[in-house]
Amino acid sequence: MRSTRSLPALVSLRAFEAAARRLSFSLAAQELFVTQSAVSHHIQRLESELGVALFERRTRAVALTPAGQAYYEHVHAAFELLRQGTDGIRAPATARSTLKVGLLASFATRWLAPRLPAFAAAHPDIDLQLQTDIGLADVAGGEVDVAIRYGRGGWPGVASRLLMAERLSVVCAPALVAGRKRPRTADDLLRHPLLASHAKQPFEWDAWSRRFGMDLGRAQTVHLHDYNIVVEAALAGQGLAMGRHRLIAAQLASGALVEALPGTMLEDPRIGWWFVAPRGTLTPPARALHDWLAASATADAPPGGRGTH
After folding, report:
1. Which of 28, 54, 73, 299 could form a disulfide with 19 if both were Cys (CB 3.0 to 4.6 A apart)?
2. Model-level pTM?
């Protein structure tokens, strides 16, 4: 049996096989990510070791000699066997899944987006396709695979799981309630416009006013397209917003928004963010997203607040 020491260096054989297959030293160099001079050096070394010329060097091209053509057929076949063997034993690429998620733009930008890198790291095989809309995406009809909805649950034709309860209080820019402007009662808030986002079934201001005895009959309400605009209007001092603390934690922490009437926090365990899916068993990607969201919500829960339910 011949010793493998009699074989030329693999790097020289690779350079020869690529150059012979493409009949170009420069194209071989591009394929192998080396310089053209490196390819030429390896082939010269191979020719010296074999004692035969493998290429005819011409002004603008190269051609295989008869010996080079015969040798190429053997070398090419050997590399093909190596490629086939490698492909056969290499672990198959993990199958990827795409999950279409319907959600509000405010939740996507203010809560979910900063956490998406963590989901991608934990589940690199799942591609989330976020579809933001103020309307309710049709989960049961297959418009999206799952949805994250804000409200009190009870949507027909779907299964709803509460991910995290919200904490609601009236918030505004500090200047709006500074000094003598500070409200003493809920009714004092009516000096300012109430900012509300579009909703098919609005409930926040009504639920809060019933809990804290505010009569909305005289209220001036400004209806805005979505909650992101509500927050921006509140930051600009244009009125009072119902603060969803899960979404405005950064603004409250910085003092850009303050509670207009401290001590009037509404914490209803059914008002919050829900994971909505078709009835039945969750698909593996949907289950992975649900569990990750639930864990993230629990980690995000304020002291004394509620996490997942």
Report:
1. 28
2. 0.68
